[in-house]
Amino acid sequence: MKIKNVNIGEGSPKIVVSFSGHNLTEIKRELNVAHENNDKFDIIEIRGDSFEALSREEHIECVQTVISELSHIPILYTYRTIQEGGKGGKSAAEYEALLSEIIELCDIDIIDIEFFKYEDIVDHLVKKAKEKGVTVLLSVHDMEDTPHFEEMMATYQAMIAQGGEILKLAYMPKNGRDVLSVLSAVHDARQAFDKPVVGISMGETGRITRLAGGVFGSCLMYSYLEDSVADGQIDAHLLKQNLTKFD
Ligand SMILES: O=C1C[C@@](O)(C(=O)O)C[C@@H](O)[C@@H]1O
User: Which residues line ligand 1 (CB under 6 A)?
Assistant: First the structure.
């Protein structure tokens, strides 16, 4: 899958760095850091849940600013709710309204849609994104647990049935065995389905998935330039240096 000049799902995994500034001033600072480090990442993720204190107009302005300053880079928009490890407190209906508006008004390349939202909401957002030519990344997170391998495979499959184009699972492991289950699921899903997949095991125990996940078929590595947004992330400088060891 080629988005701008980035081939997702081919070659080594692509580095995604997240912008988590809370307002335009902080976003502009992150843009400066990104310009100075433009060889360290492939994709920018805008974490819309960081803009909770802003009006809708200001929220959209932050998104548009990133898009216009980094027009050559694929832009992923994510609004991560509290239930799935983010800061977003919107209800399901508000989540749907926000994502619809972002798809409609902003020239984003990829949208993260939380898969375990109500089915009709996911349906509607997937259709809307596809009409606009925005790539659909379906995601599931569990900040406490890791399900069994079979359940992860079933989730990947259900995501495909729902129209997912990039399929992402992120779980908190209790032990090394959980980490291996995530890597096995990523590996088998990559072999079985013709779709880019992502599998993350969070926290210290799961950190190996953020470094060597590509060996097993994970296509995106979530990272950061200045501020980590999730437990276990590896900074983009270190990640970039070390990913080559797995080429
Ligand atoms: O969902 C994910 C993955 C992530 O939570 C991580 O664990 O690295 C980081 C988030 O920014 C992103 O949206």
Answer: 18, 45, 47, 78, 80, 85, 112, 139, 141, 170, 200, 202, 222, 229-230, 233
The 3-state secondary structure of 85-142 reads CCCECCCHHHHHHHHHHHHHHCCCCEEEEECCCCHHHHHHHHHHHHHCCCEEEEEEEE
State the closest ligand 1 atom to the C-alpha of 45, by its place in the atom list counted from 1: 11
Place domain 9-242 in its CATH homologous superfamily: Aldolase class I (3.20.20.70)
* pTM of the model as a whole: 0.97
Kindly provide the ipTM of the predicted complex, given to two decimals. 0.95
| Residue 46 among known ligand-binding residues | yes
Q: What is the pLDDT of residue 165?
A: 98
Respond yes or no: is residue 195 known to be catalytic: no
Under the banding of pLDDT at 50, 70 and 90, the label for residue 69 is very high
| 103 known ligand binder | no
Give the pLDDT of residue 235: 95
Residue whose CA lies nearest to ligand 1 atom number 9 = 230
